[in-house]
Amino acid sequence: MKRTELAQYIDHTLLKPEATDADVRALVEEGAELGVYSVCVSPNRLPVEAPEGLHVAVVCGFPSGAHDSQIKAAEAARAVEQGADEVDMVINIADAVAGKYDAVEEDIRQVKQACGDALLKVILETAVLSDEAITECCHAAERAGAEFVKTSTGFHPAGGASRHAIEVMHAAVGGRLGIKASGGIRDYATAVTMIDAGATRLGCSSSAAVLDGAED
Predict the structure, then answer these.
(1) CDD domains in the record, alphabetically (predicted)?
(2) List 11, 88, 95, 107, catalytic entry
(3) For the segment 163-180, what is each residue's pLDDT rounded down to a tens digit?
(4) Which of 3, 134, 156, 170 is 20 to 30 A from 150 in CA distance terms?
């Protein structure tokens, strides 16, 4: 894959809680230099001054998802007011594990309504879900109006993205929703594996290392 093509799959990510404004400025500068699609930051780092062509994504209900839906919606609305182009929300993982997919859908719907025209990605935390739960949560996200489903926060001890999870997600909504692989993508080979399985976006904090393996 060409370097420029692969770069446009990447959300260049910095979500460490200790990240400062200076760290975010450095993230934006590196993202612009690498030619990535977007930078992804925590909500308290907004607003972000990004050059034209570099999108800004922000996480919501992060990293546990164990927030009241109204709080998530308010957080999303505030992020969009502060210039976020995309919102990456964490679902209520306990509801997903318990099979309460209507509740998962309603949680997503409230956040999507708060996003307005901003794109919504729905983080499922696939490493803790069964294939059935992943499939049902993908369908819930689609019914609620989200544009993307996403594997992981990258913070859960159960792990991040896997080829199998991407394949399950692709079988559920591929071609209708975007699919973001996130968590543990640190090199070119892993990135290409995820894309081959159906990922249309990659969350990477090691974007330069990922791009190093691509063709110029």
Answers:
(1) DeoC
(2) 88
(3) 999 999 999 999 999 999
(4) 3
